[in-house]
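User: Design a sequence. Structure:
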C-alpha cells in the first residue's frame, strides 16, 4: 500500500486513512489508485465486518488536488469511471455491485457491511462524495461539507445531485450545490449530512467503538439484507417495500444468524455469528 494511504484492521474493523495531510488529503492519481486498492482489499477480506474512512491531519479530503485538476484536458487526465465502463476490480471484489457503484467514490455504499466516514475536517467535492457514500458520517467540530464544484466551473460530479438530495432533501441540496457554500458541523448535523457529532479529540475512538459494537452485536446477514432494503427505498412504493420485507422475513427467521441471536439474547452473552 502506498504511503499516501494507511490501511489497518483491528477486531474486524478496517480503517482507511487518506494520508496527504500537507495537501489536506487532496486526491491525486496516486491517492486515487491507493483508495481503490484499499476498498477492494477491505471488500475481499471476509474478516472485515465494518469499514472506517478518515483523513490524516486537519481535513477529511479537500477534493481533487489542484495540480491534478489543472491537467484536466482531453487526453491528459484519466477519464472518469462511468456506468458504461465501470472499474472491474470492484465487480471482482463484490459480484453484485451495480455499475454506478463501481468507483472509488461510491463503492463504500455497495459494501454489505457498515461503513463510517470519520469527518475530522472539511469534506470538499470528491471528499464530500466519498463521505456521503458511507452509511454513517461521524464528525467533530472541525467537520464541514462543501460542494464547491460551481466555484471552479465544474458540475456536481459522481451523482452528487442525487446523493445529496437523498440525504438532505431537494431544497437543501440546491442550497449546497448551487451556492457552493461551506456547511459547518452544527448545520451539517441539523441537516442530516452528519450522523453524530463528537469532541474532536475522541472522534476516531468513538467511531471505532461504534463499528466494533456493530461487528459484535449485529448479525452480518441482517446488515447485508437491511442495506439492500434501504438502497431500494428511493425507487419503491410503500407496498413494494412491505412486500420485500415480507419475502425476506421467513428466510431470516430460518437462518443460523437468527438462531444464534436469540440464543445469545436468552443467555445474556455476545453472539457468535456464523461465518458469512
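Assistant: Done.
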Amino acid at each position: 500500500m502506498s504511503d499516501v494511504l494507511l490501511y489497518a484492521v483491528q477486531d474486524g474493523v478496517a480503517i482507511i486513512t487518506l494520508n496527504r495531510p500537507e495537501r489536506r488529503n487532496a486526491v491525486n492519481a496516486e491517492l486515487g489508485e491507493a483508495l481503490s486498492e484499499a476498498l477492494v482489499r477491505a471488500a475481499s477480506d471476509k474478516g472485515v465486518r465494518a469499514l472506517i474512512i478518515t483523513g490524516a491531519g486537519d481535513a477529511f479530503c479537500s477534493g481533487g488536488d489542484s495540480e491534478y485538476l489543472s491537467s484536466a484536458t482531453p487526453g491528459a487526465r484519466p477519464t472518469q469511471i462511468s456506468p458504461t465502463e465501470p472499474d472491474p476490480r470492484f465487480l471482482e471484489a463484490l459480484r453484485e455491485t451495480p455499475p454506478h457503484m463501481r468507483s472509488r467514490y461510491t463503492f463504500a455504499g455497495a459494501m454489505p457491511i457498515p461503513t463510517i466516514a470519520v469527518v475530522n475536517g472539511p469534506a470538499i467535492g470528491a471528499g464530500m462524495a466519498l463521505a456521503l457514500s458511507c452509511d454513517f458520517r461521524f464528525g467533530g467540530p472541525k467537520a464541514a461539507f462543501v460542494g464547491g464544484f460551481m466555484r471552479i466551473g465544474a458540475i456536481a460530479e459522481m451523482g452528487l445531485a442525487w446523493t445529496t438530495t437523498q440525504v438532505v432533501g431537494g431544497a437543501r441540496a440546491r442550497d449546497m450545490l448551487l451556492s457552493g457554500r461551506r456547511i459547518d458541523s452544527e448545520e451539517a448535523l441539523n441537516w442530516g449530512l452528519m450522523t453524530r457529532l463528537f469532541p474532536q479529540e475522541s472522534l476516531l475512538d468513538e467511531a471505532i467503538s461504534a463499528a466494533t459494537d456493530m461487528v459484535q452485536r449485529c448479525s452480518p446477514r441482517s446488515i447485508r439484507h437491511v442495506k439492500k432494503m434501504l438502497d431500494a427505498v428511493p425507487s419503491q412504493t410503500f407496498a413494494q417495500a412491505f412486500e420485500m420485507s415480507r419475502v425476506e422475513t421467513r428466510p431470516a427467521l430460518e437462518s443460523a444468524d437468527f438462531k444464534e441471536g436469540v440464543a445469545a439474547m436468552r443467555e445474556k452473552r455476545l453472539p457468535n455469528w456464523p461465518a458469512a
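The longest strand covers residues 5-10. The chain has two domains: 5-214, 219-267.
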